Known about the structure:
Elements: H1 2-22, E1 42-43, E2 61-64, E3 68-72, E4 79-85, E5 88-89, E6 94-97, E7 115-119, E8 125-126, E9 130-137, E10 142-150, E11 153-161, E12 171-176, H2 189-195, E13 200-204, E14 215-218, E15 231-235, E16 242-248, E17 253-256, E18 269-274, E19 286-292
Parallel strand pairs: 2-8
Antiparallel strand pairs: 1-7, 2-3, 3-4, 4-5, 4-6, 6-12, 7-9, 9-10, 10-11, 11-19, 12-18, 13-14, 13-15, 15-16, 16-19, 17-18
Amino acid sequence: MKTTWLKWMSVSAVCGSLVASAATPKPPPPKAQKDPDAGAAKVEFKDIPTLQDGPGKGFYAIFQSKFYDVEIVASNLAAYVYPKDKGERIDKPIIINNRFVYTPNERDPKDLMVFTGVRNLAPPAVNPPKLVISAVADSGAALIQTWKFGEGKIDIENHLKGYDANAPPPMRTYFKFPQTHKFTPNIEKADREKAMAGYLLTVRGGKSDTALKTTKFTYASKVEGFSVGDTIENQGPWGDRKVTFKRKGSKGSLNMGGEWNRFPYDGLEFFFRTVADPKTKRLDAQSFEIKIE
């Protein structure tokens, strides 16, 4: 009887340990993503080198193709994208900017990261197929931006490393379409519409309940503003070319920046925004593509 009791106690202890091990463990506290460039020498934006001769003289990098040209300004790493029509570059650039260097504006979000320089920046280049920018924020975090240039397409991906795991900041990439027309107040709407015939801005929403439905704006009608979308198409400013900004993956949203209630011909600003998961505090990569077709 004593032997049987001991065997029962042993089996019970084993079962108890199995039950305990099957319990759902508590999730570990969030960990910051390491910055692979941490420790590398930092270069301030004002000291970024430039191309010394040729068509890209004075710029950090340029890319030239059949469908578009890109010029990247050394002092702030803003990119000017010039679509081409029939092989000719049209002097109405789209400006892509991560606000690496900017003048604070009361309209800007309060959680914008403030950057102080770059690390491990490649030498100035002409027609690089790939370009990596590692911008350092004053918080110690690093925004690693990768550009991939192709025929009629540009892919951009952002990763944030070294951020505070308990309060990860959102990532934003801004782009601004050019101003195309200036009208004096006495110009009638019908005349404005005639001058901008064929100019069209199309916004396509995502799958979420709050996403904007597909909406088309002529250049002669005001854009009242929107907060969520996936894709924006712009046709008119560059002849037969259509330019499309499209979010890739399932994270982030396309938003309207700057002043709302404006006409597209004034030059509207938009931005892609990606925030951390509220439960896991994980901040996924932000990626989007630009098609020029």
